[in-house]
Design goal:
two-stranded antiparallel sheet; alpha+beta; 7 strands
Length: 130
């Protein structure tokens, strides 16, 4: 199980902190770490799969925990992180996932765009209109 970053470029401290939290999220998906997933994802979080299917936080975590979604390796390519209003961030990157999802095993490179919010000094994956 691994997570790596390719070509992260020159990031300031806030951008580094955002990237680190996204890496923690990738590890939590791979390790099926229920506590960490619940910590990192705000209640308003939604995820849209490459199929177009959108899930709530609880639906997404549920499918990770029941084995419907299985992640084995993540490579984050060229992350671009934009900080807005000092407490909001947008992370854009291509993410290559080795996974077994809905019974299909493969490696997919997906364009990921995550919005994050800084709460009490820490970044959390959250949904807000950008």
């Amino acid at each position: 199980m691994s997570v790596s970053v390719v070509d992260k470029g020159n990031l300031n401290q806030d951008q580094e902190d955002v990237l680190e939290r996204f890496i923690e999220f990738q590890y939590a998906m791979i390790e099926k770490d229920l506590e960490k997933l619940n910590e990192l994802l705000e209640d308003n979080y939604t995820l849209t799969h490459m199929s177009g299917k959108t899930q709530t936080k609880d639906e997404y975590i549920g499918e990770i925990m029941d084995g419907t979604l299985n992640y084995y390796k993540s490579i984050i390519h060229n992350p671009i992180i934009t900080i807005k209003e000092k407490d909001k961030a947008i992370l854009k990157a291509d993410v290559t996932l080795d996974a077994k999802v809905y019974g299909i095993k493969g490696t997919w490179t997906l364009h990921s765009e995550q919005t994050m919010e800084k709460i009490d000094g820490n970044w959390f994956l959250s949904k807000w209109d950008n």
